[in-house]
Amino acid sequence: MTDVVPLIEALTAVFGTRAVLTAESDLEGFVEDWRGRYKGRAACVVLPSCTEHVAAIVRLCAAHGVPVLPQGGNTSLCGGAVPADIGIPPVIVSLSRMRQIRRIDAANGSMEVEAGCVLQTVQEAAAAQQRLYPVSLGAEGSCQIGGTLSTNAGGTSVLRYGNTRDNVLGLEVVLADGTVWNGLRVLRKDNTGLDLKHLFIGTEGTLGIITAATLKLHPLPTHHALAWFAPVDPAAALQVLGLFQAACGARLNAFEMINRRQLELVIEHVPERRNPLGELHPWHVLVELADTGGGDEMADLLQRTLEAATQAGLIVDAVVASNEAQRDALWTIRHSVSEANKKGGVGLTTDCAVPVSAVPAFIEQATRAVHALIDGLDILVVAHLGDGNAHFIPFFTFDAWHALANPGATATALRRVVNDIAHELHGTFSAEHGIGQTGLGEMAHYKSAAELGLMRAVKQALDPRGLFNPGRLLP
Ligand SMILES: Cc1cc2nc3c(=O)[nH]c(=O)nc-3n(C[C@H](O)[C@H](O)[C@H](O)COP(=O)(O)OP(=O)(O)OC[C@H]3O[C@@H](n4cnc5c(N)ncnc54)[C@H](O)[C@@H]3O)c2cc1C
Fold it and tell me: What does the pLDDT read at residue 87?
């Protein structure tokens, strides 16, 4: 068993006690996820202030043979950022003190930021220069750029702008031997061999620690038109999506769907959230258009498309946001789902994506499969419909959950039947949250031996001693 005490002493000697946390009470927020579902042990938490500090920490950990777990805002929904209670407790490297926005080049549409910058801070800094950093998600007030890069986060703007991977120009990464790779490119075109940044995006800190990034910026939309409507069913919602795509092209900014039970939970558990429509319909969609001008024209387009969909029998009710406050209120409902679900019970979040055209079949078949296991179990659906990404969430009240004989086995079985349906429809079990601890068994189950072999070869090449996040990503 590796003794971590000499390493902690060495880290403390270099960085001081304010940057090396060891007391149990200080570690609490770092070793447990925000929903309280995963908890592990850590040797200590280190809080570097610059890239050179991160490199020195990695070198010391390597010298002492102790693993390293990079951590951002710890908002992972799959236990990605906290240690598993196995093996040598890792050193958690929290990037939260590395929050500098190094530079913004508005004309180039790029900004260089440190990994610990909170996503919302980055959005606001870009907006101050009339630019948009488009990655947006419910946790944007606390998740960090490094975390969003390492999980290739999606969110509500993927339909128009792509996921995080599509909005990065370059990275700075500390490698397993402590080398700093400066890949902070600012180019939209650069065909000089392997595009190495993609090795570190979406690989959950298993190949290196991202310390900074050059992000891609877009023109800042100044005009928005937003509606909340009730489609007849998911198939009708998909047809409405087609109508909006045909009518609005690139101005279609978001197309998000939730089901009735999900909306009920938000209204029940999050203060000041109300049903935007007269009654609680089975399905609800938020649709948003955005552009740098032409607000009146866009409002007309939204209205006309909704009317055409209503006449075609696809929509039963709709409301259009008439000002900024109403727009914010509707978005806030959408962004409150995770908070509501945490307060309301135990939701077994899944993260499937299927071809967009297959979302209605996925929801229908997954519902049948879950009810075949537990008749009548509540199901929440939160879908980034325009991306084919549907969080299909079997949901228990706290009492029902505690009454289960073996909750762990029940959770695994329920997730598996849902993921199986996605797989049969040529989809994936992991669209945007990452693998974390929840998805490790699914990697072994769904990924081919060839694919896992290639991933192991890359891991072996970049991190031969298995220093970074051992036991993660690769079963
Ligand atoms: C309310 C809520 C809503 C959410 N909505 C969405 C959504 O719509 N779409 C979506 O994709 N996700 C969503 N998430 C999940 C989560 O916010 C994202 O996965 C986010 O990208 C994680 O960022 P983080 O900084 O909290 O990372 P953490 O949770 O701290 O870490 C996640 C993973 O990245 C690794 N990591 C972190 N920082 C670094 C680094 N600098 N270098 C290398 N590895 C690193 C960690 O080791 C871990 O494996 C939501 C979460 C919440 C709580």
Answer: 86
